[in-house]
Write a structure and sequence with these properties.
The complex is a heterodimer of chains A (172) and B (287). Chain A is mainly α and 172 residues long. In chain A, 78% of the residues lie in helices and 0% in strands. Chain A contains 7 helices and no strands. In chain A, helix 3 runs antiparallel to helix 4 and helix 3 crosses helix 6. Chain A starts with a helix and ends with a helix. With 287 residues, chain B is an alpha+beta fold. Chain B has 2 domains: 69 residues, no CATH class; 166 residues, Rod shape-determining protein MreC, domain 1 (Thrombin, subunit H). Helix content of chain B is 37%, strand content 26%. Chain B contains 5 helices and 12 strands. In chain B, helix 3 crosses helix 4. The chains are: A mainly alpha (172), B alpha+beta (287). Chains A and B meet through helix 1, helix 2, helix 4, helix 5 and helix 6 of A and helix 2, helix 3, strand 1 and helix 5 of B.
Chain lengths: 172, 287
């Protein structure tokens, strides 16, 4: 129960940061995608189920306020969370390489699907422009923010796991 | 540890079924929002009450912080210039800052007031921008007024000296505005001097240069030139006539030799938008 509340608070905080604070400190109009960091890292830390649920909530939050149709971002984020869940077996808390690779991969996947469904289908074919001007800066900035933000998520997750372990050994 | 967890959740559903169910749910939601308004209404109301207060709070804190950082910045400058008058300057800098802030606010309010005079016949309501689109693909922002203040979908939004966009979604205490520089936005406009209608469309490729494009201008006699003002046209379904859209910066002939297209600079500075006016009247349409 505590875990659910904490994770929900993390998502809300990430969303709010992304909509307000990071808009102010955006580099050249690019905003890092914090919700992808959250979705992806819980995906590979906690598995497929957690990844897809957290992705769903994050996406839905964007859909409700900024999406044209409800469920579109929810679907993309959910898929990303699920795919990240496959890498749970490879995940070690000490290793920073895997999270960085996975998060930038997720980011690429997100940007690419956003381009295909929201732009290509409206016959905007100039992919190289969107790749260089929108997708690449977003990935780079997100990876930079990951270095800080991921540590925080990891720390919270470890605290939660220690707590759960303690209460489990108490009752079983 | 892991063994324990496996034991605990022995009868849980495999994640691929959850994925399947949620995917179907998402698709159903998409179809429903396309066709009806069943789920968006309540969901938007609930989430509005949960998220908007936070967003307003962060905004207040953000404004407070920027005003603080402004203070420090300006103070430093003065200290470098007048080291011998250090203490006096410190005091005065603080005073100047407060006055400066008042002045900025005054000039901003004056601008809004002038705009109010210009479009005096419409009833309007002022609103603060409290959030921006979290992605980098579209230009949508959130304001702190909603249905409680009489805002409806498709009402026009103005700021500074011209058209900002229109309301696309609305909750009890919030609304989202799609700006005219958004890639999926099209505005029917006309050249003020000649009354030729054009279609102004936002374009992500041009957004960084601060311009947007227009097309379908019929101007055989080359009357339209750079610097001409574009205002919203009378034949638009959504936009009220006569709101300034921007000024033409470039006109060129299309390959078909019949129409012209080009670029214009919007009248509003979209990078620094913090207060807007929402026109509470809707364009009259044929029912």
């Amino acid at each position: 129960m505590l875990r659910r509340i904490v994770v929900f608070l993390i998502i809300i905080t990430g969303y709010l940061l992304q909509c307000t604070v990071f808009q102010k400190i955006s580099l050249g109009g690019t905003v890092p995608n914090i919700l992808i960091i959250i979705t992806s890292s819980f995906g590979f830390m906690r598995g497929k189920k957690a990844g897809l649920l957290i992705g769903f909530i994050s996406g839905l939050l964007i859909d409700v306020f900024y999406g044209d149709i409800l469920g579109f971002y929810a679907l993309i984020y959910m898929g990303i969370g699920y795919i990240n869940g496959f890498f749970k077996r490879l995940f070690y808390p000490e290793d920073i390489k895997l999270p960085l690779i996975l998060i930038s991969g997720s980011e690429l996947l997100y940007c690419f699907s956003a381009y295909v469904f929201l732009f290509l289908l409206r016959s905007r074919f100039h992919f190289s422009f969107y790749f260089v001007k929108i997708i690449l800066p977003e990935i780079v900035y997100t990876v930079l923010v990951t270095l800080v933000f991921y540590k925080a998520i990891l720390w919270v997750n470890e605290k939660l796991e220690i707590r759960e372990r303690r209460s489990a050994s108490k009752f079983v | 540890m892991s063994r324990m967890r496996i034991k605990k959740s022995k009868f849980s559903i495999p994640s691929k079924y959850i994925l399947l169910v949620m995917t179907v749910l998402c698709i159903i939601m998409m179809v429903l929002t396309f066709t009806t308004n069943v789920i968006t209404g309540p969901l938007e109301a609930v989430s509005g009450y949960v998220v908007i207060p936070f967003q307003k709070g962060i905004n207040e804190v953000g404004m407070w912080l920027t005003s603080r950082s402004d203070n420090i910045k300006r103070m430093n400058e003065l200290i470098v210039e007048n080291t011998e008058l250090q203490s006096a300057v410190d005091e005065m800098a603080l005073e100047i800052n407060l006055l400066q802030q008042d002045k900025y606010e005054l000039s901003r309010l004056r601008e809004l007031y002038e705009l109010d005079e210009q479009y005096g016949s419409y009833t309007k309501i002022g609103a603060r921008v409290i959030g921006m689109d979290p992605g980098n693909w579209f230009s949508i922002f959130l304001i702190d007024k909603g249905t409680n203040d009489g805002i409806q979908i498709n009402q026009n939004v103005i700021a500074g000296s011209g058209l900002v966009g229109r309301i696309v979604e609305v909750g009890p205490n919030w609304a989202t505005v799609k700006s005219i520089i958004d890639d999926s936005s099209n505005v029917s406009a006309m050249v003020l001097s000649t009354s030729d209608t054009v279609i102004v469309s936002g374009d992500l490729e041009l957004m960084n240069d601060g311009i947007i494009s227009f097309e379908q201008l019929k101007d055989e006699d080359d009357f339209v030139a750079e610097g001409d003002q574009l205002v919203t046209s009378r034949i638009s379904d959504i936009y009220l006539p006569g709101l300034t859209v921007g000024y033409i910066t470039e006109v060129h002939k299309d390959p078909n030799n019949l129409t012209k297209s080009g670029y214009l600079t919007p009248a509003v500075d979209f990078k620094h938008i913090d207060t807007v006016l929402v026109i509470l009247e809707l364009k009259q349409t044929v029912e």
